[in-house]
Specification:
Layout: E1 8-11, H1 14-18, E2 26-31, E3 39-47, E4 51-60, H2 66-76, H3 84-94, H4 98-116, E5 117-127, H5 132-143, E6 148-160, E7 168-177, E8 188-189, E9 201-202, E10 208-215, E11 221-225, E12 230-231, E13 235-237, H6 263-273, E14 279-282, H7 289-296, E15 300-305, H8 308-318, E16 325-327, H9 333-342, H10 344-352, E17 358-359, E18 373-374, H11 382-389
Parallel strand pairs: 1-15, 1-16, 2-5, 2-14, 6-13, 14-15
Antiparallel strand pairs: 3-4, 5-7, 6-7, 8-12, 9-10, 10-11, 17-18
Helix pairs in contact: 2-4, 3-4, 3-5, 4-5, 6-7, 9-10, 10-11
Amino acid sequence: MSSLQANALYYGDCLDWMEQWDDQSVDLIYLDPPFNSKANYNQLFHTDGAGDAQFRAFTDMWYWDHAAVQRYAKYENASGRLAHDAIVGLKKILGACGMMSYLTYMAERLEHCYRLLKPTGSIYLHCDPTASHYLKILMDVSFGSFLFNNEIIWHYAKGHGPTKAYRRKHDVILFYANPKKNKFNAQKYAHLDSQLYRFNRIDEDGKKYRINHTRDKNGEYKRFYLDDGVKVDSVWSYLRESKFDQLPHNAEENLGYGTQKPECLLERIILCATNEGDIVLDPFCGCGTTVAVAEKLNRQFVGIDISSFAIDLIVNRRLLNKSVSIEGIPFSFEAAEKLAKDNPFNFESWAVTRLPGFAPNTKQVADGGVDGQAGEDNRNVARMGLLLAG
């Protein structure tokens, strides 16, 4: 084990990094992992000399393949693991399928999230109805069902779904923490316009308030002030707060990343669950909304992503001119050689974005991880990638 380095970005599989770190290292974990949405998420990539191209930022399609069989075997033969009973039981129910592959993947990572979280910490798992019911089972066995606090509903304006079913217009955020020990800074939101008429009294300082028919300990009617707002509950809706909608295409903070979440969502979670100086971990940080908001709110941050493009996007857009450590990205010939040997497809994703006129492949092929797309004038640059790969 080793100490986690805060204010840092890590390139690679979050499992590889998290299993290296000491127990009880972080105050808040927010994770927005793949949802098993059966979709590929592509990102517009600008290349000098080859125009704009799209490449696959990440894939969210799961199959019962050799890797899934290996993950399941680790649980089947290890009754002491936290998620053993859940994984074996779910396999009996679901069989060998893509969903089961996804759940074995998530179980491995949730176990390390449990190990890394401080006793006073909180974890927020962002998912959607595709797998939220199965993920709650994994969270219950990994963290303990007694640590379940809320199923938060994030309700947004745009929906999707088949014509003969209700439109899907919400995500689910599972909140787990020890209610006797965790930090919880209650948040409030402003009253809706339709409620303002209730605040029809003005006190001696000119502040608007209303009363109801309950009395305080002195026998006086309780006052409820307009400026106090309303305590946030477990439904976070654009109907109450317009900013809680999905990001519009023309939003200043929108980076065009397929699964990007609005900053206000992370701001609420971070303000509620942490104090200044606390450490926030996002194991699937994507384009870096979590780390950017944590930095703005004077929290320490740790972001991990398997896409080198995502790490670059955070450094060059989110945290431009900020002090941040980057781990896992090669900064020497020897480090590039090691990455090419250990993870050839991660090497491809990193290498071709450093070559003028190249963009990564939209799908992987049996080429050992050294490939890419380029304009005709830049084909010779592929030799650089081949040299780096040995």
